[in-house]
Design a protein that fits this description.
Elements lengths: L2 H6 L1 E4 L7 E5 L2 E8 L3 E7 L5 E9 L8 H25 L3 E2 L2 E4 L2 E2 L4 E4 L3 H8 L7 H17 L2 E5 L2 E4 L5 E3 L1
Antiparallel strand pairs: 1-7, 2-3, 2-6, 3-4, 4-5, 8-9, 9-10, 10-11, 11-12
Amino acid sequence: MKPSEQSTRRYVIQDNEYSFRTGIVGNRQLLVGLLPFTHTVAVWFDASGAFQQVETIESMHEGNMHEPSATACFEALAAAVLRERLEAWLQRVEFQARTIVVQSFFLEDLYIGIMALPTCYSDFLGNPELIPDPEEREEVHGYVREWIDSGNYVLCWGRDHWMNREGEVIAT
């Protein structure tokens, strides 16, 4: 993919119903969901898919939990509570689940956004000598070409979701 194609590419994201939700509210597109254990975040786009704003809907913090078992228990409880509250919020804003189409964006502080390539492929392209064996190097070049030709991309939502061109999660 050429750099100019990267900047004009639009990315299809289907409603996942678990890690994140996609849809419309009024005339805006919405990507919303839980970030690991403690935040519910909404990312808004206009009808053309241009990023507009990010909004923290709700945040929970651990407080003074010190034991690992207490932390794990808190995280499970927090996620359940946040999911329930997210569903109520989605009803309040009259969310309609739909596939959305957005332009590239990236919010580094939240690790939310779109990358054309997985980090391992970007690292390899930046320094192919990371793989000393020429045959293995050519094999990885083939994987990268296949990724690009297939129209795959990475949706970062607290972790990497490898997506196909139809906007479906193909790996996490």
